């Protein structure tokens, strides 16, 4: 079948197809300022692999897969066929309306001196030998190339170029972008702005190394070209325009400042130890950024540009070790493009950033470092590595999943080195992390936006089966260290009206005096209250099956917080060392165990007789060391009257002198001067 035929007139050649589809062309007036290059921006319009193709008007930028009045060109079958209206004339090998179009070299002048046709036209042939092929005047299939054209608008002629990737193998082609000079002057192929008097044009596969001083007034790169700014001395400045595709490299310890308004849409890479300095989004154009180890991208932002020129949509990739994004200005840099770091570290250093693009990294150790910066994460992320906050950094979570939690959770590490006072501020949504480590100088606010949020700590993929059995509390805690189950210590302060959840089979240790007022839930693993006030303001504590609350410091818990154990005959509350601890009423959701451990424990509950112990649940106490005088090694109190427990509750309390093997007896309440202590004949649960 002739690819130049109309689908309803298969016997007609390409030229007759165009005459058959004659239509009235409506002319779009040019409203641009005189003498300016009008650039489309990156469009990447796909060329379908069928006869309909895509219709395009280059001045209005209207596009459609259906024919519309005023179209300029129609590319179809991936670009094997290209039709044009009388208003749009591509550069051809001859003046015939069906002569093949021909590619234009990057930087070449497109003007009246080139070869055009008139009227409706097309390019494409039955034997596929038209404009796509290996000849000098043909487009190479699948390779970006430039079409030159002239377009008529309001009795004026404009000259322009269009970057395309054409195919003829049934795959989709692409119209990447285009530009035209609206004064009627000639335009250089590939130019999207003024190139000045001495532009540096780098053709395909060209490789130029230059300093900023000798680069010329502008740089125009063809696809596949490479231009390197090599600044071994002081920081340099390039104020010219950079256009085209290819690769732009920054190397040398001096680095370079780009101050032009660039339309470059290739890859800009910053070599190890070098830096690129910019002040507004136009300096980067549509470039994809790559940072190598210790490379820096420096934003000199100003507050007046917030929400505008401080917003960057460029994708940024850290290719090895640590890449640094530094904001040295007083504005907020918004990064809306994807940030990726596979096995490498993205460091946000200094100033303010808002991240609305996704931070990704599937390889392990794809770390995020907030280093003295104020960073707001406003979308869900999926990087596989820890999150560090150090040197007074502030991290604000402003969306569900801002700290990754879907496929993996990120360990949060605060003030591990350098100066302290780093902060996590939670807004909008709950967050989940793998573990929490931090120095005493760090802090977490669970309700930065005055709304209560929950921080979940732990690795939900790790089983907490290690809690089963009768191992001593001290050996159990030691085992968590040697098993490598990600035990972490946090010495900072957790504040706000939100709460925490401990899940996963690891151990989380709280070493600070915390002031959060929400609930504490231990769903699995170990939560260890290891300092005075560790759970000092929490409103309630619930320990579920597979979870354990370990108290290893006196006055670590809030005496006004109720405790509910729902442990299905496993230890829900355990003690390490000699401590005094107080709670409000004790509730049971199922049979549960309290392990008093090896030290001297003074455990106080408020009166619990009015609290329902569901399904007649039983309470078992392990490692009891009581005394007939009521002043034994271990003392457990419920309120301060005979109503501390009901008779039914008391009948469901069993006491063991070890880890559940040797039954010492059932608990009974005996009173001497208001103190309830154990009987010598039956080991008694001492109550006060």
Protein architecture, described:
By secondary structure, this protein is mainly beta. It has four domains: 14-188, no CATH class; 197-282; 292-450; 458-688. 3% of the residues lie in helices and 37% in strands. The strands form eleven sheets. It has a ten-stranded parallel sheet, with no helix packed on it. A nine-stranded parallel sheet has the order 15-17-20-23-25-28-31-34-37, with no helix packed on it. Strands 46-49-51-53-55-58-60-62-63 form a nine-stranded mixed sheet, with helices on one face. The radius of gyration is 36 Å and the shape is elongated. 54% of the residues are buried.
Terminal Cα span: 98 Å
Q: Which spans of ≥5 residues are poorly predicted at pLDDT below 50?
A: 1-34, 482-486, 672-688
Radius of gyration: 36 Å
Q: Summarize the biggest pleated sheet.
A: 10 strands, parallel
Quaternary structure type:
single chain
Portion of residues in beta strands equals 35-45%
Let me know the number of strands: 65
Query: How are strands sequenced across the largest beta sheet?
Result: 18-21-24-26-29-32-35-38-40-43
The average pLDDT value, as a whole number, equals: 87
Structural class, by secondary structure, is: mainly beta
Number of domains in the coordinates? Answer: 4
Helix content: under 10%
Number of helical elements: 3
């Amino acid at each position: 079948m002739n690819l130049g035929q109309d689908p309803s007139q298969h016997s007609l050649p390409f030229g007759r197809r165009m005459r058959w589809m004659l239509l009235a062309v409506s002319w779009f007036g040019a409203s641009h300022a005189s003498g300016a290059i009008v650039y489309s921006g990156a469009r990447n319009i796909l060329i379908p692999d069928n006869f309909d193709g895509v219709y395009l008007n280059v001045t209005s930028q209207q596009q459609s897969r259906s024919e519309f009045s005023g179209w300029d060109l129609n590319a179809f079958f991936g670009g094997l066929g290209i039709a044009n209206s009388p208003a749009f004339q591509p550069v051809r090998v001859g003046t015939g309306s069906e002569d093949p179009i021909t590619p234009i070299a990057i930087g070449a002048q497109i003007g009246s001196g080139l070869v055009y046709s008139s009227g409706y036209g097309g390019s494409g042939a039955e034997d596929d030998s038209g404009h796509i092929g290996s000849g000098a005047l043909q487009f190479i299939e699948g390779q970006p190339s430039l079409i030159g054209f002239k377009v008529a608008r309001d009795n004026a002629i404009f000259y322009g170029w269009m970057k395309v990737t054409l195919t003829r193998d049934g795959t989709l082609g692409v119209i990447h972008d285009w530009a035209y000079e609206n004064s009627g002057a000639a335009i250089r192929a590939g130019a999207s702005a003024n190139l000045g008097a001495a532009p540096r044009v780098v053709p395909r596969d060209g490789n130029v190394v230059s300093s900023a001083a000798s680069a010329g007034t502008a740089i125009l790169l063809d696809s596949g070209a490479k231009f390197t700014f090599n600044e071994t001395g002081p920081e340099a400045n390039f104020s010219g325009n950079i256009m085209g595709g290819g690769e732009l490299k920054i190397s040398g310890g001096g680095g370079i400042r780009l101050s032009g308004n660039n339309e470059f849409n290739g890859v800009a890479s910053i070599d190890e130890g070098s830096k690129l300095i910019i002040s507004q989004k136009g300096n980067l154009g549509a470039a994809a950024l790559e940072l190598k180890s210790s490379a820096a991208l420096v934003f000199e932002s100003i507050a007046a540009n917030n929400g505008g020129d401080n917003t960057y949509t460029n994708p940024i990739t850290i290719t090895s070790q640590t890449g640094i994004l530094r904001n040295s200005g007083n504005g907020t840099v918004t990064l809306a493009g994807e940030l990726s770091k596979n096995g490498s570290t993205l460091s946000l250093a200094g100033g303010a950033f808002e991240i609305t693009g996704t931070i990704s990294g599937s390889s392990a150790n794809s770390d995020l470092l907030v280093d003295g910066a104020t960073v707001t994460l406003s979308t869900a992320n999926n990087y596989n590595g820890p999150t560090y906050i150090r040197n007074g950094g502030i991290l604000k979570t402003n969306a569900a999943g801002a700290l990754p939690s879907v496929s993996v959770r990120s360990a949060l590490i605060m003030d591990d080195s350098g100066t302290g006072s780093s902060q996590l501020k939670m807004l909008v949504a709950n967050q989940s992390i793998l573990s929490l480590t931090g120095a005493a100088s760090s802090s977490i606010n669970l309700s930065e936006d005055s709304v209560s949020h929950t921080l979940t700590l732990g690795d939900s993929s790790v089983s907490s089966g290690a809690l089963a059995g009768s191992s001593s509390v001290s050996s159990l805690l030691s085992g968590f260290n040697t098993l490598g189950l990600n035990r972490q210590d946090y010495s900072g302060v957790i504040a706000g009206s939100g709460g925490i959840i401990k899940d996963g089979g690891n151990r989380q240790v709280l070493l600070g005096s915390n002031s959060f007022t929400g609930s504490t839930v231990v769903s699995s693993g170990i939560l260890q209250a290891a300092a005075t006030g560790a759970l000092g303001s929490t409103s309630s504590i619930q320990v579920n099956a597979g979870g354990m609350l370990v108290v290893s410091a006196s006055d670590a818990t809030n005496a006004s917080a109720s405790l509910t154990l729902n442990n299905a005959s496993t230890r829900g509350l355990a003690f390490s060392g000699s401590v005094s601890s107080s709670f409000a009423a004790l509730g049971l959701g199922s049979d549960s165990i309290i392990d008093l451990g090896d030290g001297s424990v003074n455990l106080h509950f408020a009166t619990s007789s009015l609290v329902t112990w569901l399904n007649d649940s039983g309470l078992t106490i392990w490692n009891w060391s009581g005394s007939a005088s009521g002043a034994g090694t271990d003392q457990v109190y419920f309120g301060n009257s005979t109503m501390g427990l009901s008779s039914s509750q008391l009948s469901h309390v069993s006491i063991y002198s070890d880890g559940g093997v040797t039954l010492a007896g059932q608990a009974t309440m005996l009173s001497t001067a208001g103190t309830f202590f154990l009987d010598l004949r039956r080991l008694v649960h001492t109550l006060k």
